[in-house]
Amino acid sequence: MKITVCGKGGCGKSTVSALLAKEFERMGKTVLVADSDESNYGLHRQLGVKLPRDFTEFFGGKEKAFKTMMAGEILDTVKLSAFAKKFYSEPFTLNEIPEEYISRNNGVMLISSGKIHQANEGCACTMNSILKQFIKHLTVGDNEVALLDMEAGVEHFGRGVDNSVDLILMIVDPSFESLKLTKKIQQLGESIGKPVFFVLNKVNELVLPTMLESIDDQSKVLAVISTDTEIARKGLLGDELMMEIPEIHTLARKILKQ
């Protein structure tokens, strides 16, 4: 199963992605997490791994990959390796991803589409284009899960990254912006024929009724996660998230049934 994890900035996308990855691993799954947020430098720490090399380096770096794509010369460039040739035109499996671009923690693998490392290096367009091709041709087995931790907002829909996933999971926090965004993401998901589900995050009993009212179909709410001071503390310290949370366990089981 291939899953988009999306939402507004600060809603908890990376935290939920990391907790879900660990939960799927406990369930016996092999898990690939794709870090597709060029400004997020914390997901790898939550997973307990080193930040992997930017996947754009496989194609000669962001600038070279961008110029190649703009010139329409991809099919000439991908003679670099067997995997590169398959990357743009044929299905490939988790086992075929070049090992030097993966960080591992037991059954959890992390790749990073790329990061912004310095000022004036350009936009994230190339990284998003590479991610689109990656998820389009990646094939996962029955015992494998791919989680795409997206950048904030809805740009990934505009770039077509979500066209090849099986399910869209939006993380909703108690903010006006997040509640309004639920309807837009529901609409965008429906427009490409992808099911959209919701996780209400950082919830307390005072805000829960209002958050539920923002969801047109409350059967699409797969989990309600309360504010957790230990998770918040580990987030501040950049510590690995190793706790088992009942709501995440239930969420993982519900996702696999979809």
Automatic annotation (TrEMBL):
A single Gene Ontology MF term assigned here is: ATP binding
Where is it found, in Gene Ontology cellular component terms? Answer: cytoplasmic side of plasma membrane; cytosol
GO BP field: negative regulation of cell division
Record SUPFAM superfamilies: P-loop containing nucleoside triphosphate hydrolases
Give UniProt keywords alphabetically: ATP-binding, Nucleotide-binding
One Pfam entry for this protein is CbiA
Xref: Gene3D superfamilies = P-loop containing nucleotide triphosphate hydrolases (3.40.50.300)
Q: Which domain of life is it from?
A: Bacteria
CobQ/CobB/MinD/ParA nucleotide binding domain sequence ranges: 5-235
Q: What is this protein called?
A: ATP-binding protein
Upper classification of the source organism reads:
Bacteria, Bacillati, Bacillota, Clostridia, Lachnospirales
